[in-house]
């Protein structure tokens, strides 16, 4: 009997806990560049990119070739037992790419959550402090510490009790919803007055562009004032670039566009084109604050993933993907703004590079989030052969994370489907 999405969904329901969500009731069979084909043979345009993991597309031939070559050498030793050159080479390349005119070192791990968790460990060891300030709308991962940093209870930490203490929440600046740079800085000052002295805060962690929070871009002046505030109080600034990194915003790291450098930078997702590697890069003196044995992991910096990541960096250079990112972003934003001009349900189209969002509202009122329409658009687009994602604190933001390697014709087909969905539903 041939496999169907429905039969596999039944098996999934019986075998996999319900806490593992699934946006689309589809089982992928194979993929190529910016398309995915399901087990029933239907092809979909992929505007999700595995949630910002596939900036270089599905199965990029140069990445696959690098992995295949590494498979003939070794797949695992545990770097802390027997080292291998790809780990060191990747750290060297990341050190060179992360913003900051200072000596850097990089730790490799496996997931974004692990990277963020380790950045907090490093900040605490380097400063001798324990407190952390995170922001409203933040998403930093699913481990206990990173859930504490994440500014959204449902669904991420619902039913799990209180998360770790010593974490304080400031406002993320968002002009659309009336939070100015002054307001956001004032919210940090309130923490210093009401909750914790600056000398008790090890780090302030921020996404230069919020991911799950709705793709809000931190204003450049806010980031500069945040840097000055951290410098004033001896607090480390951590840039969570798990989703913004590896070229999604038009520069390899989004902080390159913010005019300041973070002390520690986390990265993951697209850095290895679909293979699991993540890391923390930061000032060498801070990265060295933890004694040997205090950092690492059995699979951390897998040789397979390192080989893939080195190939990703090569592909970005050879194929000029940062330039392509800007072109993709401009093409998609132009198309989405044309839809906005016809439908007042679109409150805003925003982007940094090819990290693109449409915020949906009721009757043109951006203060009335329209999660229902957002869900309907995602479902209708799927019926028409386009995979989309939603996000946002209120679930009313459509996000586009299409591979940067997608052809213009495919981008236009995706835009046409989104336009049809709005014409039929909005």
Automatic annotation (TrEMBL):
Record's keyword annotation contains Amino-acid biosynthesis: no
PANTHER family associated with the record: AMINOTRANSFERASE CLASS III (PTHR11986), LEUCINE_METHIONINE RACEMASE (PTHR11986:SF58)
Entry keyword set: Aminotransferase, Pyridoxal phosphate, Transferase
Domain of life according to the entry: Bacteria
Entry keyword rRNA-binding: no
SUPFAM superfamilies, alphabetized: PLP-dependent transferases
InterPro entries: 4NH2But_aminotransferase_bac, Aminotrans_3, Aminotrans_3_PPA_site, Class-III_PLP-dep_AT, PyrdxlP-dep_Trfase, PyrdxlP-dep_Trfase_major, PyrdxlP-dep_Trfase_small
CDD domains (UniProt xref): OAT_like (cd00610)
NCBIfam families: GABAtrnsam, PRK08088.1
Family that this chain belongs to: Belongs to the class-III pyridoxal-phosphate-dependent aminotransferase family.
Protein name: 4-aminobutyrate--2-oxoglutarate transaminase
Matching Gene3D superfamilies: Aspartate Aminotransferase, domain 1, Type I PLP-dependent aspartate aminotransferase-like (Major domain)
Broad class of enzyme this protein falls into: transferase
One biological process term in Gene Ontology: gamma-aminobutyric acid metabolic process
Needed cofactors: pyridoxal 5'-phosphate
Molecular function, one GO term: pyridoxal phosphate binding
Known EC number: 2.6.1.19
């Amino acid at each position: 009997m041939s496999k169907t999405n429905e039969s596999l969904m039944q098996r999934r329901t019986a075998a996999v806990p319900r806490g593992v969500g699934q946006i689309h009731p589809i089982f992928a069979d194979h993929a190529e560049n910016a398309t995915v084909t399901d087990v029933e043979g239907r092809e979909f345009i992929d505007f999700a990119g595995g949630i910002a993991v596939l900036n270089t597309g599905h199965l990029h031939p140069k990445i696959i070739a690098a992995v295949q070559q590494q498979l003939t050498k070794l797949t695992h030793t545990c770097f802390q037992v027997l080292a291998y050159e790809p780990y060191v080479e990747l750290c060297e390349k990341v050190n060179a790419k992360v913003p900051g005119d200072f000596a850097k070192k990089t730790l490799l791990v496996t997931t974004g959550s692990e990277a963020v968790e380790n950045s907090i460990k490093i900040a605490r060891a380097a400063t001798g402090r324990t407190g952390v300030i995170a922001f409203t709308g933040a998403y930093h991962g699913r481990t206990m510490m990173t859930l504490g940093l994440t500014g959204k209870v449902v669904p991420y930490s619902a039913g799990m009790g209180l998360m770790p203490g010593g974490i304080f929440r400031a406002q993320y600046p968002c002009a659309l919803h009336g939070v100015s740079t002054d307001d956001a800085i004032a919210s940090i000052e309130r923490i210093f007055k009401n909750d914790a002295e600056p000398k008790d805060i090890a780090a302030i962690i921020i996404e230069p562009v919020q991911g799950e929070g709705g793709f809000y871009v931190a204003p450049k002046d806010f980031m500069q004032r945040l840097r000055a505030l951290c410098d004033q109080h001896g607090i480390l600034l951590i840039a969570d670039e798990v989703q913004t990194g590896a070229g999604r915003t038009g520069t390899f790291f989004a902080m390159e566009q913010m005019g300041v450098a973070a002390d520690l930078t986390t990265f993951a997702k697209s850095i290895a084109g679909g293979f699991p590697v993540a890391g923390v890069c930061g000032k060498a003196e801070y990265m060295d604050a933890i004694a040997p044995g205090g950092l690492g992991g059995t699979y951390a910096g897998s040789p397979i993933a390192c080989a893939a990541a080195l190939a990703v960096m090569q592909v970005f250079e050879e194929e000029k993907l940062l330039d392509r990112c800007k072109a993709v972003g401009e093409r998609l934003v132009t198309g989405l703004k044309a839809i906005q001009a016809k439908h007042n349900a679109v409150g805003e189209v925003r982007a940094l590079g090819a990290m693109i969002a449409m915020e949906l509202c009721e009757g043109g009122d951006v203060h009335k989030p329209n999660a229902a329409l957002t869900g309907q658009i995602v479902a209708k687009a799927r019926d028409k052969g386009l995979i989309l994602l939603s996000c946002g604190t209120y679930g009313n933001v459509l996000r586009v994370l299409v591979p940067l390697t997608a052809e213009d014709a495919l981008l236009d087909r995706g835009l046409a489907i989104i336009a049809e969905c709005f014409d039929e539903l909005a």
